[in-house]
Amino acid sequence: MDTRRGALAVPKVRRVGFFTPTEPPPESSQRPNRSQSGPVEATTSSSPLSDSPSGNLISPVLIPPSRHHSDNLTSHAAAPVPVPGPAAFRRYLAHDRSLHIGSYNAPDSLLGTSPPSSNGEFSEDSVSLFGFQRSDSTKLSASFPNGGFDLTLAVRAPQEPETKIATASASEGKKKIAEVSGKSESVTTKPQKEKEPKSLKDKTTKAERRAIQEAQRAAKGEGKRHADESGKANPGMAAKKPQPKKERPPVTSSVSEKTAVAVEKEKRMDVPQTQMQYDDKSRVDKAKRRAVVEQTEIKNKVELFLHLPQYERGNQLPNLSSSFFTLDTIHHAVYKVGLQHLAGDISGDNARCIAMLQAFQEAIKDYTTPPMKDLTMDLTTKINGYVSFLIECRPLSMSMGNAIRFLKNQIRKLPVNLSEPEAKASLCSDIGRFIDEKIILADKVIVQHAVTKIRDGEVLLTYGFSCVVEMILLYAHEIGKKFRIVIVDARPNLEGQKLLRRLVTRGLDCTYTHINAISYIMREATRVFLGASSIFSNGTLYSKVGTACVAMVANAFSVPVIVCCEAYKFHERVLLDSICSNELGDPDAVANIPSFITKAKQSKMMDNNKNLQFLNLMYDSTPSEYISMIVSDYGMIPPTSIPVIVREYRRENLLL
Amino acid sequence: MPDVQSMVAEFVNKLRKRKIEGSQATAKCTVELLRSVISHQRVPHANQAAALIDAVKAVGQQLVAANPVELAVGNVVRRVLHIIREEDLSLTTAAMAGLDLLDASDDDDIDNCKGIGYPAMSAAVVAAAARSTLRPPSLQTLLEGTPESATVPYTSSSGADSESKSKSADKSSLTRKLKHDVIEGVNQLIQEISGCHEQIAEQAIEHIHQNEVILTLGSSRTVLEFLCAAKEKKRSFRVFVAEGAPRYQGHLLAKELVARGLQTTVITDSAVFAMISRVNMVIIGAHAVMANGGVIGPVGVNMAALAAKKHAVPFVVLAGSHKLCPLYPHNPEVLLNELRSPSELLDFGEFSDCLDFGAGSGSLQVVNPTFDYVPPNLVSLFITDTGGHNPSYMYRLIADYYSADDLVM
After folding, report:
1. Based on CB atoms within 10 Å of each CB, which residue in A39, A127, A179, A541 is the most buried?
2. How close, in Å, is residue B327 to chain A by CA atoms?
3. Where does B203-268 have alpha helices with state H?
């Protein structure tokens, strides 16, 4: 919380959101795809001015790597840059790619052009940056952007006064005045870097890319050396850290403009990747070739949802479990979680997310860096592999995406000088902290807040099963509030029965009904408590299918709707309907109905009739006007405040 | 007579035990029962209509009491009463016409000819026309006891004379004639009820366009016929069917639709809101239509109607005329609803292990209502066998089918 407050206090941070004059360049559509890492960097940097056209362009000139390298240097660095320059640049490139790979949406990254090996180099600098600055998140992110460049800069560093470095180390402890000024400057390097990799990626062929990688690898060695030197320069610091400040020299207006553009771009990258669209045949085929899980597509697809994966259920599990001992690319803990997701043994967003994170924890514990490889890079690749496996098992929820993003950030930020066991331990503890703070503690805070909204004699209506809501109800009961609960349930999962069982066992007064009867029962309700899978920055609540119906009817009956959602589930995407982004469940679950209608006929019909489809939507989106209040770990807020929270705390969420 | 009594008792029993499902089936059975009641009713020489009305009312009260939620029973009883009154009236006017006491007689004859010329037109309609020429409705006539006494003094005193004269002249023939006419009218009503699907389905082509996406819920034969009629006319469209959770009638409907070759997708009830944004029209079959234009339909309908309103999707209700109820609803969600067995939601005893009855704390109620009420402002259009109507027009439509005397039975 302290850090958060600190972040707020820095006015510059705020400015970013409001002033973003220059419009993103044309390729914006592509951008989001690679973004994962972007968010961190993007939000922070502060430069308000940004009309520079130059920043926007992705100039073709930049394509040949050696060349831009020089461009870079000339434009930004006052000091002559020593050898490592080009390499550093390339490293940045690699970094960018790795970002792409790293993004939580694995299918995409799988399809991505860059082979995993390419990310190797980028990591140390950025990581180290983060590593020492963690205490001040805003600052840190500001400095972060140039992480990729740092090494080159580091080389120049010697020119800079030692004091600078000292400040940097000081910043580790607490605040850094100098840094603010340093920040904008440092940021400046960024646009160019940003640009170049992109264009490179666009235009280079595979061979070229490979060549670049080689160069990077070579450069890395050099970079390391430099890093070591700088590290020696100020022993207090973990590694080569001086970077943020190096940029000193030419702070021209054009530079700041460029910075703004960079910010802009990063912003765009910030937007999480769009999910893979399954109506794109070629990409789906590619993805399939790499898939671990063999899936057969459903024959009778619902046309409206061709863009979502529609696989047959039930046949993957045996395959997977039989190959349990032969598959060595996937860690067994992850494998287990994947199977549990697939079989539906774990449901509920928090549970899934925690299970996944714990599996990763275990995988990291058992991880050893292969010889000749770099931990950061290799581990990211590994995690990517796990994530794509998990996605094959079941599409990730938004909150899991956020958690994965966090993890990748942590990996990227690992100080280079950490030994492998240390790095692993730090990652594991980071994950543990995420689970504790973002999920478990957050739930406790939410319960404390929400309980104040329950008065004696009320009738609370809830839908399906949400663990936060369950905690709230149980806690309210414990502290002696007298109230009645209406549990509304829906086919096919009937999760409400689980909640009903737990509440009834604890001696609460419950009424149980189906969602169809919602307008009958709503007249009795005085408050509606709903769980969430995610809340988007336009205030749209993305949750278990049926939530929207409940909220709508509550709204029609003028019953306040209170949504309980941990802040780590907030997402900067926007969503208007429930069609574009959703998950399809097993259609057979809808088709199979209790025995009093002859089942035999049903299944026969389904198998051989093209005209009959069953649609099992998993989520729907509730427009924000139906939501009276959102209870999150940041307090009780209206849905309109979601974008603010996302903007202000995103970094903190990622960095913890 | 005893057989009629036992028939009535049997039917009442069925109604009580909810053995008859669907308002159309109920309506049909009720009319048939009433027909046999009428045919078996021995009528006195004087006041035959009153005698018939009393008999029908007596049976009707039993039936309504047996299942007050099935409004179709009450509707049909009122329709039959209306037919009796109208037949009686038209007989009276015919008699008067025969005596040339009224200028209106010519008109009446013409009306009668028309009635014969158009068999589709019920005698009741003719009678209604005759009645309106004879006696404009007034508060006083409403307050009068029997229609006969009402008619006679107000038309003309000579009419009364003539009527009594004619009555005494051919009592037996008149008696038979009234009963015969009434049974004719009731038969027509039966035909109308069983034919309402076709009448409604005929209009389908006007309302469904190519590539339309239609959402429906519940299982209604009217809706089925309606959609199939459009399909037969070579329209191709897609249907989403909400499954209708505790009873799964949506699955039945979907099966039938698929059997007729329609593109059908079954969705869960909870997905109604999610899908409504891609739906062009919601079509449902009503259980009953109230006088204010409100609709009682299968459970879950209100949710769909609200969602449709939110997304500006037309919400169309199909209803045969036997579903028009002349009553205004009060708290219909509760008073005109019926709670079904909880076992449809939870198996018997499923939660008994977690309930601690000794401690007295904690309780579990299971609510499983059958119907849902949609207020008139959510309904875009009614399609009945007489055409399309606004919700606000329902009260007028009802005035055509029922006489004010019967509203309270």
Report:
1. A541
2. 21
3. 204-207, 221-232, 249-259
Of A515, A591, A614, the CB nearest to B270: A515
Note whether A512 contacts B365, CB cutoff 8 Å. yes
Whether the full predicted model's pTM is greater than 0.80, yes or no, is no
Least confident stretch, A133-137, A395-399, B229-233: A133-137
B51 Cβ under 8 Å from any chain A Cβ: no
Going by pLDDT thresholds of 50, 70 and 90, the confidence category of residue A168 is very low
Partner-chain residue, chosen from B273, B302, B346, that has the shortest CB–CB distance to A519: B302
- What's the whole-number average pLDDT of chain B? 79
Residue A21 has pLDDT above 50, yes or no: no
Contact, A79 vs A158, CB < 8 A?
no
Distance between CA atoms of A595 and A52, rounded to whole angstroms? 69
The whole-angstrom distance between residue A629's C-alpha and the CA centroid of its chain comes to 24
In chain B, what residues touch A620 (CB-CB under 8 Å)?
270-271, 273-274
* Chain B residues touching residue A492 (CB < 8 angstroms): 268
Chains A and B: how many Cβ contacts under 8 Å? 184
Contacts of B278 in chain A (CB under 8 A): 304, 577, 579
Q: Which of A501, A512, A523 sits opposite B345 (nearest CB)?
A: A512
B/e letters for A549-569, b = 16+ CB within 10 Å, e = fewer, are bbbbbbbbbebebbbbbbbbb
Distance CA A150, CA A92 (A): 9
Per-residue model confidence as pLDDT tens digits over A62-104: 444 444 443 444 344 344 434 444 444 444 444 444 333 333 3
Q: Where does residue B319 fall: left (phi above 0), alpha (psi -120 to 50 degrees), or beta otherwise?
A: beta
Residue type (1 letter), B64: V
By the CB < 8 Å criterion, does A514 face chain B?
yes
List all residues 6 or more positions away from B398 whose beta carbon is below 8 Å from its beta carbon: B291, B324, B325, B326
Helix (H) or strand (E) holding A542: strand A541-544
Backbone phi, then psi, for A364, in 5-degree steps?
Answer: -70, -40
What amino acid is encoded at B72 in this protein? A
- Give the tens place of pLDDT for each residue, A318-373: 666 666 666 667 777 888 888 888 877 787 888 888 988 888 888 888 888 778 77
Secondary structure letter of residue A25 according to DSSP: P
Of B259, B301, B371, the C-alpha closest to B239 is B259
Q: What phi and psi values does residue A116 have, to the nearest 5 degrees?
A: -55, -35
Q: Quick check: B313 contacting A, CB < 8 Å?
A: no
Say if residue A294's pLDDT is above 80: no
**In chain A, residues 400-439 whose CB comes closer than 8 Å to chain B:** none
β pairing state of B263-267 and B238-242: parallel
Within 8 A by CB and 6+ apart from B259, the residues are: none
pLDDT at A458: 92
3-state secondary structure of B222: helix
**Beta-strand relationship, B238-242 and A629-632:** unpaired
Q: What is the ipTM of this complex?
A: 0.81
Of B255, B272, B372, the CB nearest to A519: B372
Distance between CA atoms of residues A553 and A56, nearest Å: 47
Among A491, A511, A549, select the one facing B365 at the smallest CB separation: A511
CA angle, B328 then B332 then B333, to 5°: 165
Please, which residues 282-301 of chain B have a Cβ atom closer than 8 Å to chain A? 299-300
With contact defined as beta carbons under 8 Å apart, do A128 and A238 qualify?
A: yes
Give the mutation candidate from B69, B247, B264, B268 for the A interface (greatest A CB count, under 10 A).
B268
Partner B contacted by A512 (CB < 8 A):
yes
